[in-house]
């Protein structure tokens, strides 16, 4: 069985860069590497440079037949700029890096024998070509996304970007996966409550694998914050969304920012990414309440003697919590040892105002130990990510329709109630259903709008222009929990 991979590159013809698709196939056959598609001597010599560079950077060259096709076949290709895309294609086709890393990007670069990426002539022409195709240029010395050597593919946490396996190993938690997919599609807050060993942390840590890569604007915004804070920006420049996981001992200044001069906190370092708060009730209540402004407004405003400092903080909040101090309240196999006052005090540490701002809340059950033998059979990250990307694409198309200005902020945390309601296009039946459920469950106005936001995302996932009662019912189920 052969594995295939395709990515974009370009070659110079005159003063113009012409796009070239680099197709790589790895599989059974006579061991060796062949390049087809009107390649000149410099490109044919890439075989030896690529082999040496791959090995020097800690990867391996597949001991199989490797065929590289440079399309279109009618175009004569020259130069050494195809070294980098050929090497990346081999690594992706052989499963050593994830193919999603290569999507929506144009790669150009010559490789040295030690894996370093050297610049090639015509960077501006390649940049114009990439812009024309709507792609990001990845090349040594490029102004947009630089890459210095193949080792960068090991330095960045590729496992946090996209692998096909992560969510597949989370078996028999399909409801929680569905909630994570909805949260990722709409940028909603997600709180999972359950006993130890129920998979809350495992699910939260895998949400990064179903998020789309950073756009160019998001990349610049997030990189600017990390640069000011003295944090590593390499993963961000590779399109990986930030994933911040502060300990529950974090202070208010550590979480939202502070100091003199003002230093960005975790909420700003999570800008355009995910902020994961594990053991949520273990955080100090005052620290948690400081999240109310950034969760609602997507920014944090710090007041100092010399004026106000505003920092960006548009992130997806993901949190996990035990239901009680011992962790086993409601567990099917182990009895809770906590008293009623202890349970109430523990749950009250989070605070109603912050809970009201978390869109999706669900209980996660602990699975029997025998379930580990069936792990890897659940819905995988690729399937979940496909739904997320489709929902976001549909939402963008929907917002571009004439007369839909009210729905232009479908993924904005600070959109007004009127904008939310207008984007849903509710009929009389749906409005009556929402009103009856709000009265029955004593939902606040904020909680009700939060449910409608989630329902709008669910409708986008199903490619529906208007929100119907089924979408609302599922959103309410993720809000009401087991009360």
Report what the structure shows.
The structure is a single chain. Helix 6 packs parallel to helix 16 (381-399), helix 18 runs parallel beside helix 20 and helix 19 crosses helix 20. The chain is of the alpha/beta class. The chain has helices at 41-44, 46-56, 83-93, 123-133, 152-155, 174-186, 200-205, 216-228, 234-237, 252-256, 266-269, 285-289, 292-297, 340-348, 352-356, 381-399, 417-424, 428-441, 445-461, 469-480; strands spanning 3-13, 16-27, 32-36, 65-71, 105-107, 110-111, 117-118, 136-138, 190-193, 243-244, 274-277, 299-304, 307-312, 316-321, 360-363. The protein folds into 3 domains: 3-155, Ribosomal Protein S5, domain 2 (2-Layer Sandwich); 166-381, 3-Layer(aba) Sandwich (Rossmann fold), CATH 3.40.50; 400-480, no CATH class. Helices cover 37% and strands 16% of the residues.
Which keywords apply here?
alpha/beta; elongated; 20 helices; 483 residues; Rossmann fold; five-stranded parallel sheet
- Give a quick account of the main beta sheet: strands, pairing sense, barrel closure: 5 strands, parallel
Strand line-up in the sheet with most strands: 10-11-14-9-15
CATH architecture of the largest domain: 3-Layer(aba) Sandwich
Indicate the percent of residues in helices.
25-40%
Quickly give the structural class: alpha/beta
Q: Which spans have pLDDT < 50 for at least 5 consecutive residues?
A: 155-165, 403-410
Cα distance, first to last residue? 51 Å
Our Rg estimate from Cα atoms comes to 25 Å
Number of strands: 15
User: What spatial form do the alpha-carbon principal axes imply?
Assistant: elongated
Strand content: 15-25%
Question: How many independent structural domains?
Answer: 3
What do we call the CATH homologous superfamily of the largest domain? P-loop containing nucleotide triphosphate hydrolases
């Amino acid at each position: 069985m052969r594995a295939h991979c395709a990515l974009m590159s370009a070659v110079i013809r005159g003063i113009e860069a012409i796009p070239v698709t680099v197709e790589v196939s790895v599989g059974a056959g006579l061991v060796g590497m062949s390049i087809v598609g009107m390649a000149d001597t410099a490109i044919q010599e890439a075989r030896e440079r690529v082999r040496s560079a791959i090995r020097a950077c800690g990867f391996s060259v597949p001991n199989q037949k490797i065929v590289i096709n440079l399309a279109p076949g009618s175009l004569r290709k020259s130069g050494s700029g195809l070294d980098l895309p050929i090497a990346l294609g081999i690594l992706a086709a052989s499963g050593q890096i994830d193919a999603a890393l290569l999507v929506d990007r144009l790669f150009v670069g010559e490789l040295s024998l030690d894996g370093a990426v050297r610049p090639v002539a015509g960077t501006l022409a390649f940049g114009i070509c990439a812009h024309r195709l709507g792609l990001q240029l990845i090349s040594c010395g490029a102004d947009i996304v630089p890459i210095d050597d193949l080792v960068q593919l090991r330095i960045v946490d590729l496992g946090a970007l996209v692998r096909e396996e992560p969510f597949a190993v989370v078996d028999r938690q399909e409801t929680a996966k569905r909630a994570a997919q909805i949260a990722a599609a709409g940028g909603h807050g997600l709180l999972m409550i359950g006993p130890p060993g129920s998979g809350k942390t495992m699910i939260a840590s895998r949400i990064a694998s179903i998020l789309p890569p950073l756009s160019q604007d998001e990349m610049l915004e997030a990189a600017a914050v990390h640069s000011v804070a003295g944090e590593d920006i390499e993963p961000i420049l590779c399109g990986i969304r930030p994933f911040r996981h502060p300990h529950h001992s974090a202070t208010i200044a550590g979480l939202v920012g502070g100091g003199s001069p003002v230093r960005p906190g975790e909420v700003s370092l999570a800008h355009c990414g995910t902020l994961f708060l594990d053991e949520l009730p273990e955080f100090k209540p005052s620290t948690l309440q400081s999240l109310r402004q950034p969760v609602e407004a997507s920014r944090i405003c710090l007041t100092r003697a010399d004026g106000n400092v505003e920092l960006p903080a548009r992130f997806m909040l993901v949190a996990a919590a035990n239901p009680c101090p011992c962790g086993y309240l409601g567990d099917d196999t182990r009895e809770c040892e906590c008293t009623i006052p202890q349970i109430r005090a523990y749950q009250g540490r989070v605070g109603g105002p912050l809970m009201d701002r978390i869109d999706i809340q669900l209980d996660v059950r602990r699975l029997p130990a025998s379930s580990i033998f069936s792990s890897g059979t659940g819905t995988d990250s690729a399937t979940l990510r496909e739904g997320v990307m489709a929902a976001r694409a549909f939402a963008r198309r929907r917002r571009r329709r004439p007369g839909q200005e009210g729905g232009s902020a479908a993924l904005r945390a600070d959109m007004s109630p009127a904008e939310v309601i207008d984007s849903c296009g509710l009929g009389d039946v749906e409005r009556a259903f929402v009103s009856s459920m709000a009265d029955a469950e004593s939902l606040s106005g904020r909680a009700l709008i939060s449910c409608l936001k989630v329902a709008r995302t669910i409708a986008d996932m199903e490619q529906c222009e208007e929100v119907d009662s089924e979408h609302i019912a599922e959103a309410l189920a993720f809000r009401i929990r087991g009360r």
